[in-house]
Amino acid sequence: MKTGIKIALSVAMLASLSFGGEQFAMSAADRAMYAEMSENNPADIMVADGEELLGYMGGDEGLAKYLGVSEDDLPTYIAGFPRYIKKFGMVVGLDQVIQAMMADGGNKPLKLKSGNMFSLLAYVKSIANGEKINIDINANPQMKAAYALGEKTFMTRRGGRGLSCNSCHSSDVVGRVLRTQKLPDLGAKGAKSAATWPAYRMTKSSLRTMQRRFQGCMKNALLKVLPIGSKQMVALEVYLTAKSKGSEISIPGLKR
Amino acid sequence: MKRTIMMSLLVGASLFATDYAKVITHPDVSKMIQKDLLAPPKVYMMPTGCITNDPDAIARGKYIFNNLNGKKAKKTPPKGLSRKTKNGKPKQYGNCVACHNIEGAKGAGNIGPNLSHYKKNFIDSGARTDAFVYQKIADARIDNPTTHMTINLTTKLFTPREVCDIASYIVSPK
Questions:
Q1: What CATH number is given to the structural domain containing B69?
Q2: ipTM of predicted complex
Q3: pLDDT of A45-60, one tens digit each?
């Protein structure tokens, strides 16, 4: 990232921490900065990397063919992930589709947690920009099961402090403040979260995927960190994506 | 990534049907979750001598209340409190301030009730007892089964003495 952006970012961050009565309202200057960043999201570069990488695997056309849909239908199809794919025998995220595609091309798949995979995932999901999330959790028994497992995983209290995702993201605490951070809305229907990941995280100066974000919360709250791509993590993504059904996809997102 | 490596992704299609269960990363981590589960709610007896005016105990309680762990804490821990556990890992503190405001708190949250003036408003008024505070910190589910609060003794995050230190701080005159 350009140093200029970095400096601008840290100034924005500092300013956003200084609050008075209106604790969390952004100042006009901060808001302008944020608006500028959203016009020129630093993660656009990573998304472009992802596009280049997919290019070596046949690009959008190759992906559409691999998924068995027309290039025209690709965006709508992508807006329905995670989904059950019969050929794979499991509910998968887009990153796992990319792994399978790499293997079918005779190559060793990239690790799900690798930076290049994050870029690929961000690009592929961005193909669906402007589409509304259309995940269908009743499409088949596998999706139903994934949703149920996701809900269970979200509600399960565990770890050193006995917290669950729901402790901080249930509808009754949304908008309250956890150590200066406003709790985002995930639990309620109509939440937008899933439509905004992968996103650029300003505090981490990097592109993060939704499952990577889950890991951040797990680590902070002392829950054992589940690996990306695990049945339970995909299920969590199914559960939260269903909450965002109907929201317009806009990748890369921009987060604190 | 090196262009040449990515280029190689194009070449060569596999001759055999792919075993997707092997090439897609998709572990089942139910055992990992099972081992990490929170034990059922537990009732605790407040130990004798638990609530104290000992300034060191109150200082430890205050420190635990306001800090996340031994790695992140800025000031030196007060007497009798370490930054690390016996096996060298950063010691976890309470980070109660994430959810509760209290006298002198910096950047407090408001998920839980404001604990300022607790002695005057809750103890002296008879609304709460020391034992209630002890149980609340030890295992908040006894008072409220669907609580969003952290569980601190049933999880063995703290020792009974540490819970007493925190409780002593909360009910102390400030």
A1: 1.10.760.10
A2: 0.90
A3: 999 999 999 999 999 9
